[in-house]
Amino acid sequence: MASIKEVARAAGVSTATVSRVLANSPHVRPALRERVLKAIKELEYRPNLIARSLRAQQTTTIGLIVSDIRNPFFTAISRAVEDTAYEEGYSLILCNTDEDPKKESIYLNVMRDANVAGVILSPTGPTAAGLRELETGFAVVVIDRSIPDADVDMVLLDNVDSAYRLTRHLLENGYQRIAAICGERSTTGRERCAGYEQALRAYGLLPTAELVRFVPPQIEAGYAAALRLLDLPEPPEALLTTNSLLAAGALEAIRERGLRIPDEIALVTFDETTWASLVQPPITLIEQPTYEIGKTATELLLQRVAEPERPTRRVILKGRLLVRGSSAPRVRCG
Amino acid sequence: MASIKEVARAAGVSTATVSRVLANSPHVRPALRERVLKAIKELEYRPNLIARSLRAQQTTTIGLIVSDIRNPFFTAISRAVEDTAYEEGYSLILCNTDEDPKKESIYLNVMRDANVAGVILSPTGPTAAGLRELETGFAVVVIDRSIPDADVDMVLLDNVDSAYRLTRHLLENGYQRIAAICGERSTTGRERCAGYEQALRAYGLLPTAELVRFVPPQIEAGYAAALRLLDLPEPPEALLTTNSLLAAGALEAIRERGLRIPDEIALVTFDETTWASLVQPPITLIEQPTYEIGKTATELLLQRVAEPERPTRRVILKGRLLVRGSSAPRVRCG
DNA sequence: AATCATTATGAAATCGTTTACAAAAATCTC
DNA sequence: GAGATTTTTGTAAACGATTTCATAATGATT
Q1: Which residues have a Cβ under 8 Å from the Cβ of B56 and sit 6 or more positions away?
Q2: HTH lacI-type domain: from which residue to which, for each copy (chains A, B) (predicted)?
């Protein structure tokens, strides 16, 4: 309600002095500072952020652009981002794009219009390509997906290695015919697929195209892909999915076909969720350090806001293999 | 980059005319309108929302204040709110308060400072009490929790009746000694508890304090409460929890005690989640129309923004009982 | 064609800050 | 205590839109 003008009048000073007190400038005599502080308190003055932003040509707001906040991975990230942003006095604007490049582009424009200080996003291919050239006008940090030769800060998982370890876990437990259901439209799915294939080769097996599916990262897609795999003339002994949505769909399919885990089929995936430990047997998976990812991304972003010219960084975090369920190796029945 | 001034200059008109074109005012001749539109396109002009907000003393931003976005109920709500807000040209600011009244108050102030058009929130008791008097300066819609005599728009579930139906489902399947683990610090938990007690009485049973627990709405709290209940000298035959986090904790406890569902113990809850249908046997529950809640809340909010003096409304939505698992009634073994 | 009513346009104020610059006050130096 | 130096303060111009009010242009009416 009260503006800086009224504070100035109440304290018998100019608005400039009030502003200086607000900014903790050293160039204001203690006596005046006291008077201003008193006036601020009495009038319950709070600076108008809009006015401040207009003047500064920048807000204390950051954007988080994800495909769908209901994906547990992004839910966890968003919590970390909000926590970290809040600590630094920033607010968080949330956007869902459903992996739609058009929506991504629209939201990036919204962000520009809103004068955000920066954006954390997980772009699809086309948008990622655009990011390489596009002068956005705000800081950008990419998470979850790598953009090969873009000069942008990134926070990523060691996807290839994580998928390798996850696949190896299956192989070491006696599974050989392993199928992979991967999220399409992102480097992440491809990288994880690469790790899966590397592991197969390392164990003397040949990846076959028949057992690898790229689908939209949704429960229904995972369900459909898994059904098709299970109905193959020679069905796989194990399923690897690259995120929790696909895993949920795959598990549904397994249930529908009445297959017993882990005897008749195994299921491993990425991303820890509430349900992964609640189903029986619990699911072995690669846990991503989601909170760390969100926190790191926010820190990188705010550092770049403070210092736009600093060299870009690419932080790679390690996934953690959580082995669950009976650890007894599988008895091959072939 | 380009400002309204440059557009005006390029079109050979005043900024006022450009502004009128932007606002679709009828008071501008077609010839001029064309020129302005052309200049806008050529300069790729986009109005600066900050400047607009400063002038209008209001942004096109709304706030969503929840305890924790990672609670699947709020995750789903947030998606609906964002979708609906976006359709109307509004952006969404997300805040997590962890049920902490202090944080709620801080975030409400942040919202005021940010000049949001309105806020959707799910307040704890103290904040709810404050809302009754507090002149916030922006529109407010309360979700999930009722504030008895406040003059605020609300979107709620028929908690008492839903809990009644959920409990009745247990009773009709032969369960008699039913315990309830309820979320504390909200009217919602209390209302659901009331419905539970009503159902018991309707079936000639007396609610006992020993079987009702109020705990923070977290997995760990649900786990701990469930363990204590299961370890009672005379343990319950069924557990009812009032949200999915408590249910997850309770299920963990059930697993830890090695009890078989539904023969040795039953579990029912509120809130549909991915895992509720994936665990075996799947969980019977009351599904809240989360998307509808979020959408309705946003609509109410934006209507109030447009027309601040309209009478407040209280929308009550119905929960849906999803019966799952073997529907064979329980054979009492007592 | 002159008058009046109506519509279209622009100049300038405004929203609430910050900050460059100038002026005033305090401090220092001899 | 006068002058030079430093520090403190205030004035006023931004930032980029919208809108009031006055004026200019148009159209209608005789």
Answers
A1: none
A2: 2-56
Is the CB of A79 less than 8 angstroms away from the CB of B70? Answer: yes
pLDDT tens per residue across span B25-44: 999 999 999 999 999 999 99
- Residue A230: the pLDDT is 98
A-chain CB neighbours of B93 within 8 Å are 61, 91-94
Which residue range(s) make up the domain with B99?
57-157+290-318
B48 contacts A113? CB cut-off 8 A? yes
User: Residues 41-70 of B near strand D (Cβ < 7 Å)?
Assistant: 45-48, 50-52, 54-56
- Segments of chain B with pLDDT less than 50: 332-334
B56 Cβ contacts chain C strand, under 7 Å: no
Secondary structure class of B280 (helix, strand, coil) = coil
The answer to whether residues B80 and B92 belong to one domain is: yes
In whole angstroms, give the CA distance from residue A120 to residue A68: 14
Asked if B91 and A82 come within 8 Å (Cβ–Cβ), the reply is no
- Look at residue B105 and give its three-state secondary structure: helix
CATH of the domain at A10: 1.10.260.40
Exposure letters A49-59 (e unless 16+ CB within 10 A, then b): bbbbbbeeebb
- In this complex, the answer to whether residue A282 has its CB under 7 A from any atom of chain C, a nucleic strand, is no
Distance B20 CA to C4 C1' (A): 27
Strand partners for B120? B64, B141
Residues of B in contact with A76 (CB under 8 A): 70
Burial class (CB in 10 A: 0-12, 13-18, 19+), A308: exposed
**Helices B15-22 and B4-11, packing angle to 10 deg:** 100
Mark whether A173 and A152 lie in a shared domain. Answer: no
Answer yes or no: is A106 CB < 7 A from strand C. Answer: no
Q: What is the rounded distance in angstroms from the CA atom of residue A121 to the CA atom of residue A109?
A: 13
* pLDDT (tens digit per residue) in A158-193: 999 999 999 999 999 999 999 999 999 889 999 999
Cβ A49 to strand D below 7 Å? no
Q: What is the pLDDT of residues A314-333, one digit of tens each?
A: 999 999 999 998 655 555 54
Percentage helix, strand, coil, to 5, in chain A? 45, 15, 35
Task: Spell out which residues of chain A touch residue B77, defining contact as CB-CB under 8 Å.
Answer: none
Nearest protein residue to D13's C1' (by CA)?
A: A55
Q: State how far the Cα of A161 lies from the Cα of B101, in Å rounded to an integer.
A: 44
- Say whether pLDDT at A50 is over 90: yes
Domain co-membership, A172 together with A74: no
Q: Are residues B127 and B235 in the same domain?
A: no
